[in-house]
Design a protein that fits this description.
- 28% of the residues are buried.
- The strands form 2 sheets. This protein has a 4-stranded antiparallel β-sheet with strand order 1-2-3-4, sandwiched between helices. A 3-stranded antiparallel β-sheet has the order 5-7-6.
- 33% of the residues lie in helices and 35% in strands.
- The chain contains 5 helices and 7 strands.
- Strand 3 and strand 4 form a beta hairpin.
């Protein structure tokens, strides 16, 4: 695993690996934690915007093998190292694996958005210092 700033080279690698085909928003992150296998990105998590929204994508061949939580925990460590007060995320409420991962990494469910009967999104938040805790409340 390694930490990279998002630039043209990383965007090219994300596209070549197919990771950003599934989640284009990875290309908009300020920085990423990437996991590679034989110089091919197989997992990436990053943080973007003022709301520190996290983006996570694992190549389908590597899903369900524990890689998501592993690189997610590294992202949290890096966000703390960069003096972020919090990170947030949103996910489809029906995505059970994502829900389990966010709960295991101690993200709190803040609210749920009902776009339609079929499309429901959970917004989650994690704060670790006073400034983040104030925002969380």
């Amino acid at each position: 695993m390694r930490i990279v700033n998002v630039d043209k080279n990383i965007i090219t690698k994300l596209r070549e690996s197919g990771i950003s085909n599934e989640m284009k928003s990875l290309e908009l992150c300020d920085w990423l934690i990437i996991h590679e296998d034989q110089n091919r990105i197989i997992g990436a998590v990053g943080v973007a915007t003022t709301f520190h929204i996290t983006q996570l994508q694992i190549h389908p061949e590597y899903q369900m093998k524990g890689l998501g939580p592993l690189i997610y925990r590294e992202m949290i460590k890096e966000a703390k190292r960069r003096n972020y007060s919090f990170v947030s995320t949103y996910q489809e409420a029906s995505n059970i694996q994502s829900t389990k991962m966010h709960e295991s990494t101690h993200f709190s469910l803040m609210f749920r958005i009902h776009f339609s009967k079929e499309k429901i999104m959970d917004v989650r938040f994690m704060a670790w210092n006073r400034k983040g805790k104030i925002l969380e409340k």
